[in-house]
Design goal:
By secondary structure, the chain is mostly helical. It has one domain. The protein has six helices and two strands, in the order αββααααα. The protein has a two-stranded antiparallel sheet. A hairpin with a 5-residue loop joins strand 1 and strand 2. Helix 2 runs antiparallel to helix 6 and helix 4 runs antiparallel to helix 5. 13% of the residues are buried.
């Protein structure tokens, strides 16, 4: 009987080691550009195409341009991020930013967190 078990083991095909595949990370959408018809046109005429451009713009625009887009009545930057890039987390953080510097920091922290 011991010979039969040994024979069965020899005949049975060996199981191949199953390799676990690691799915590659999904491409980050945080660097995508807005479609041409949804770019952001600042009050001074400059055009922003992505979130990174929005961060750079915070260094360049004047306070008058910033306050045109962010005031007690509205926050155009938060709305653009929410509706064009579908990034609710960043949009909510932008709504709480009170000035240009804080807005820039919120965006940069968000981008660094995505890397």
């Amino acid at each position: 009987m011991a010979k039969k078990k040994a024979a069965k083991k020899a005949i049975a095909p060996k199981k191949k080691a199953v390799k676990k595949t690691v799915n590659p990370p999904k491409p980050n959408n945080f660097l995508k550009q807005a479609p041409q018809h949804k770019v952001f046109v600042l009050a001074d005429g400059k055009i922003l195409k992505d979130i990174r451009g929005l961060a750079y713009a915070m260094k360049e625009i004047g306070d008058d341009v910033f306050w045109h887009h962010v005031n007690d009545a509205r926050n155009d930057f938060a709305n653009w991020v929410r509706h064009v890039f579908r990034d609710e987390k960043l949009a909510e953080a932008l709504e709480h930013a009170k000035d240009r510097v804080q807005t820039e920091l919120v965006i940069l922290r968000h981008l660094v967190g995505k890397i």
